[in-house]
Amino acid sequence: MNALRIPFDKFSKENRVVFFSGAGISAESGISTFRDPDGYWAKYDPMKLASPEGFQQNPKLVLRWYAERAKVARKTKPNLGHHAITNFQKLFSRSMVITQNVDSLHARAGNEPVLELHGNIHRQKCFKCGDLMNPEQKIEATLSYCNCGGMFRPDVVWFGENLPRRILLEAYQASIDCQIFFSIGTSTQIYPAAQLPFEAQNHGAFVIEINPEPTPFSNQADVSFRAPAGEVLPKLYEEFHAALA
Ligand code: BJW
Ligand code: ZN
Fold it and tell me: What architecture does CATH give domain 32-75+123-156?
């Protein structure tokens, strides 16, 4: 741990803190990442599975893939990284999670509030009118239709689609307003989400990156921990707690 490079004396419990996460934080729960050597995009074509064009070409294939992932997500549990964030949030009452993940693990760990930039795999919406499927209705791996005649699809953000505007604005505002920004388990390659660590730092935040591999942000992170989130976050929590509580 190079936590000694964190200027604890500059921080207080009143600081605004953002925990920005990507697929890497869920890896230790057993959920696959996208761009690691064993990630989804090493096996599957993202344009076939995670784009509106892919869905239109083969909706059943896309629905099957998402149903399988939703099943895995339901069976997995939040890990030490998610739980450390819950502890951090007790220390820093003005903090939030901004995630690119769709698996609900932050919420299940009790992290709150959580902004989901790329949607949620446990919901569906109409491909045509955007209406959400009734939450009482069971999501199946097969096609179902909205009253308007449109097909239901996962309520996630695919390539070429806009992120939910209000959530993106709120995430941007929180990033430029915070004093400490954690960038956890993201390859920092997918925009506009990848812009957030840069914006936070440009607006004066101290940015701590946690990722076993380097990313396009690593060189300019204030501190970069090259280790798994489930190892680093609990130790960092102890350090922050000892310094500030
Ligand atoms: C660990 C670990 C451990 C492992 N502990 N760490 C500007 C320039 C060029 C292109 C664009 C641009 N702006 C926008 C675009 C287009 C595109 C884009 O960014 N393309 C790039 C290739 C450049 N963006 C979009 O299309 C976005 N929409 C948009 O911008 O709309 C406006 C627009 C419209 C039309 C044209 C242009 C603009 C939407 C992006 C949607 C991304 N969707 C997905 C699927 C979501 C649903 C689902 O889950 O199926 O979101 S793709 C996938 O990538 C998923 C993720 O949320 C996202 C980010 O990935 P993430 O989380 O970083 O995961 P990985 O796998 O990449 O990285 C994991 C990391 O964890 C690794 O670094 C590991 O080392 C690490 N790790 N174990 C800590 N234990
Ligand atoms: Zn509809």
Answer: 2-Layer Sandwich (3.30)
Q: Is 174 in the pocket of ligand 1 (CB under 6 A)?
A: no
Q: Residue of the nearest CA to atom 20 in ligand 1?
A: 190
Pocket test for ligand 1, best of 101, 191, 198, 217 (most atoms within 8 A of CB): 191
Tell me if 30 CB under 6 Å of ligand 1: no
Domain-wise residue ranges, the chain: 8-30+78-118+163-245, 32-75+123-156
The answer on pLDDT for 2 being more than 60 is no
Strand partners, 95: 17
Pocket test for ligand 1, best of 190, 198, 218, 225 (most atoms within 8 A of CB): 190
Tell me which residue has tokens 């004066």: 204
Nearest in space to 163 (alpha carbons), one of 111, 100, 73: 100
Tokens standing for 80? Answer: 């030490």
CB-based contact 23:99 (threshold 8 Å): no
Rounded to whole angstroms, the Cα distance separating 125 from 151 reads 8
pLDDT tens digits, one per residue of 95-145: 999 999 999 999 999 999 999 999 999 999 999 999 999 887 877 778 999
- Give the CATH class of 8-30+78-118+163-245: alpha beta
Whether the ω angle into residue 192 lies within 30 degrees of 0, i.e. cis, is yes
Determine if the pTM surpasses 0.90: yes
**In whole numbers, what is the pLDDT of the chain averaged over residues?**
96
Q: Give the type of residue at 239.
A: E
Q: What are phi and psi of 155, to 5 degrees?
A: -85, 65
State yes or no: pLDDT of 78 exceeds 80: yes
